[in-house]
Structure formats: structure tokens, C-alpha cells
Amino acid sequence: MSTSPRLAAVRRDWGHDETGCTILHIDMDAFFASCEIARHPELRGRPVIIGTGTRSVVSAASYEARPFGVNSAMPVATARRLCPNGVFLPVDMAYYRSISRQVFGVFEQVTDRIERVSVDEGYMDVSAALRQWDSPTAIGAWIRAEVERRFGLTCSVGVASNKLIAKLASTNAKPDGMLLVPEARQAEFVRLLPVRSIPGIGPASARRLAQWGVTTVEQLAQVDERRLAQVTGSAAHAHTLYLAARGLDERRVTPVTPEKSIGSERTFAEDTRDARTVAQMLLRCSDVVASTLRRRGLLARTITVKLRYADLRYATKSLTLGRPVNTAGAIYPRTLRLLERMLGMPDHALDRDARLPADIRLAGVSASGLVNAATTPVQASFDDLLGKDRGRAEQALDSIREKFGNGAVQLGLRSS
User: Fold this and answer.
1) Which residues bind Mg(2+) (predicted)?
2) What torsion, rounded to 10 degrees, do the Cα atoms 313, 279, 93, 318 define?
3) To 10 degrees, what angle do helices 93-107 and 136-151 make?
4) Which overall architecture, per CATH, does domain 261-408 show?
């Protein structure tokens, strides 16, 4: 469910010159909710909201729910207050992924140059396919019709010369539309948009830019690249924004995107300041992440802890390790040290009974900087030699879970 800003002024006819416009961005409309409506046609026309439980957040909402103010990432309790007559359904990721694979199978009938961004969106480079198709928009129209015919789902398509403009076009074509932006008019198109429309500009970046008087892409285009580097603190980010303000994007469609991170997070039944409760959650998440790393034959160099506070603020803190790891025995102690730093607590305070200085709603762990375990040489340390039995124990847990299910056995670790 996209929450990116949209502007009625840009959803118009920009002309019909498709020269060089070989990039399509396809975005399914309210995908999770639409999947549920497709298998429960009696829900059509009703406000369908994906997410249940007073502690959960909304994963998706049908377009009928949005006039009530319901959107993704909103607490389900808030959504129930705003839309008391809504149909609230649990998330069924196995079903959504199954439909997604079939939808992407439609795209594959056109080209193999497909970059899957998420379960419900992706890019296509159709330059080679134009030998068999009349035009990029003909491909977009066929995809939209075929997806609706086969699955009862709608999607929106952006057609442009690069990924940035194609994505912005599909966002502003929603729902169930297609928008072509000719290459000669892409700078004009993007400068009509608010700066928050640009992918990579989140709330924090938008606030920093606003302090410099930049709230629109047109204003962004007046800032030189050196000044943007001062504002963003990153020369690479500044260069990307400099190009984006001119409707340019150097990124290619990448059919196989290496996995960037593996994570696990959970919401507590009640907000808590109990250190033992939060530590136990970090242990469970570390175990899930480590097990997933081993199953996929990966090691991770960076560990990140994520917290969501009672007021729904998020915070993260990361640690890059000298040696990549894939065991909870290595990950979990680091998560405790990260948590202490995030909350301004003394080192090893969590090894003792402690009360946290803030109410925690959600805790999670992710691993990034992923490398192939089979091809990455790792020099064993003295700690590794001492902890070899622990590593074997985690591998044994993998075997048990594979045979009897993930809930068959739980890992128990001390904090240090």
C-alpha cells in the first residue's frame, strides 16, 4: 500500500512520444486487501483492512477504507476507531506470495528483464521485447488487462525512460491506471511534485530540506550539489537528489537483486519497561535471524536492533562486526549491547535485572552486509573454539525445526 504523495496535476496526458521509454514500473493496487477481495467476492465494495489484534498495525487497506483515514502502518486500534464497520482480516503472507509469483509470471511472458522490488511491485526493461510488441504502453495495457482477467486484481503502470520517473508515474496513476511520461518532459513532470515524492527522502530528510526552504522538487532543483551534500551529509545521496530534481536516474533494471538484509520483529502484548521481557524478545528474534541465515547459506557482518516506543516512534542502532556471523550465540549478546546504547544505559546493565527508561512497544533484530557462507573465509577465534558446541547445538535445532516445525523447540541463551 503506497503512502507516497500524489498530485492530481500530474495525472494528465503528457503526450504520446514513447521514444526511449522502455522502463515500466508495475504496482499492484492495495495488493493484500485486493487479494482477499478476490477470494471473497462478497467483500467487494466494503472497507477491507488487513491487520488484526489491538497491538498490530495495518498492513494494507482497500480504497473503500481510505476515505475514513485508514492507511498502512497505522495501529489497528486506531483503524477500528476510524472505520468501525470495516472488515478486519489477518495477514496471510503465504497466500499473497503465491498470487505474487503468478502475477510476476505474467510479466515474464513479456521479458526476463524484471526487477522484483517487493511482493507487489517491480520494474521491467522492455527494450528487447519491442521487437514483438508495438510499444511500451501496449505492453502496459496488456499486463493490466491480463492481471485483471486472470486474478481479478488491478495494477497501475508507469512508463518512462528511467526507474525514478516510471515509479512516480505509476504512483500518480493509482488506482488502476497507466501514465506515460515522455523523456523530453520528465524534468517538467517531476518538478510539479512535493519533495517527499522522491524515493529516499523520508520524514527526517524532508525536515532537513525544509529548514533550507526546500519543500518542492522545483525548489530542490535550485540547490547545487555541493550544498545538497551539506544538507544530507552524504555526497552520494546529494548526487542522487541532484539528478532526481532533473528527472534523471542512473540506476539500471537489475533482474537479480541480492538480498540486502534478514530481520525479525515482534510487538509486545503490552508496552513494557521490563528488561528481561525485551531481552527475551531480542533472543527470539536473534534465533529467527540466525536460523534464516544458515538456511540460506549466508553470513552477516552488521547487526541492527530496532525499537518502537509507546508513542510509535522508531529507533535503530547498528554494529558492524569484524567477522561475519550466522549464530544466535554471536548475534544475541551484541543486540543487548546495542539496546543499552540506544537507551543510554551502562554496559552490561541488561545482564542484571533492570528497568528500561522508556516504554517499548516492539523490538526486532536484523542482519545485513550479507555474504555467501560457502565462499567467505572466516578465521576462527578463541571464542569460536570454546563455543563450537553451541554452534553445533543451533544446527541441531535447525534439523528439529525442519522436521517438526519452527515452534517445536526454542533456543535458550544467557546474555553473555
Assistant:
1) 27, 120
2) 60
3) 140
4) 2-Layer Sandwich (3.30)
Q: Is 311 annotated as a binding residue?
A: no
Grid cell listed for 10: 500530474
Confidence at residue 83, expressed as pLDDT on a 0 to 100 scale: 97
Contact call for residues 25 and 166 (beta carbons, < 8 A): yes
Averaged pLDDT for residues 93-101: 94
Question: Residue 91 region, left (φ>0) first, then alpha (ψ -120 to 50), else beta?
Answer: beta
CATH numeric code, 1-183: 3.30.70.270
Other Cβ atoms within 10 Å of 304 Cβ, number: 21
381-393, pLDDT tens digit by residue?
Answer: 544 544 455 556 5
Give me the residue label for grid cell 511534485: 193
Q: Rg of the chain over CA atoms, in angstroms?
A: 24
27 among annotated binding-site residues: yes
Cis peptide before 175 (omega within 30 of 0): yes
Strands 48-50 and 87-89: parallel
Q: What's residue 337's pLDDT? A: 93
- Looking at beta carbons, which pairs linking 314-322 to residues 24 or more positions away fall under 8 Å? 315/342, 317/341, 317/342, 318/368, 320/369
Q: Checking DSSP bridges between strand 155-160 and strand 178-180, what pairing results, if any?
A: parallel
Q: Residue 360: its pLDDT value, please?
A: 94
Q: Catalytic positions, please? A: 121
The answer to whether the predicted template modeling score (pTM) of the entire model surpasses 0.85 is no
Q: pLDDT tens digits, residue range 141-169?
A: 999 999 999 999 999 999 999 999 999 99
